[in-house]
Amino acid sequence: MKTRDDLFSTSQTIAIVGLSDNPERDSYKVAQYMQNAGYRIIPVNPKLTHLLGETAYASLSDIPISVDIVNIFRRSDAVPPIVDEAIAIGAKTIWMQLGVSHESAADKAKAQGLSVIMDKCIKIEHAALES
After folding, report:
1. Nearest-CA neighbor of 73 among 37, 8, 51?
2. In CATH, 4-126 is 3.40.50.300
3. Which of 8, 27, 62, 66 has the smallest C-beta neighbourhood within 10 Å, fewest atoms?
């Protein structure tokens, strides 16, 4: 498994599952921060068509480019099918935001060679490495 420093330095594209178009929501703030830090953000939300200057997709399998990190802003019980889809598209890392965890889905992802981070905010972790 990669260190967080390696993860951030080798990743370019972050698909954010459950990204909201409400600027007051944490998912929006995190996406905007990561975009400003130089990452390409891919919104994954079936209710959106565009957000933060990027095309939004209904699901991970609809994304036409490779994804390095799948960042999950959904309830823990919604994680397993997202992990299955992340494995299917060849994502390299599953990142479950603060308050989101699912041990069996994490074990499945790890068994397929993905790095997994649970119950941590990608924005906080990135900012800590930058300071």
Report:
1. 51
2. no
3. 66
> Domain residue spans in the chain?
4-126
Note down pLDDT in tens along the chain; length 131 residues. Answer: 567 778 999 999 999 999 999 999 999 999 999 999 999 999 999 999 999 999 999 999 999 999 999 999 999 999 999 999 999 999 999 999 999 999 999 999 999 999 999 999 999 999 998 77
Give the Å distances, CA to CA, from 31 to 74, 81, 97, 107, 110: 14, 22, 12, 26, 25
Token readout for 114 is 């993905």
pTM for the model stands at 0.96
Residue in 54, 17, 21, 14 with CA at minimum distance from that of residue 38? 14
**Rounded-to-integer distance, Cα 45 and Cα 35, Å:** 17
Q: 55-58 long-range CB contacts below 8 Å, 24 or more apart? A: 56/19, 57/15
Three-point CA angle 14, 131, 115, nearest 5°: 35
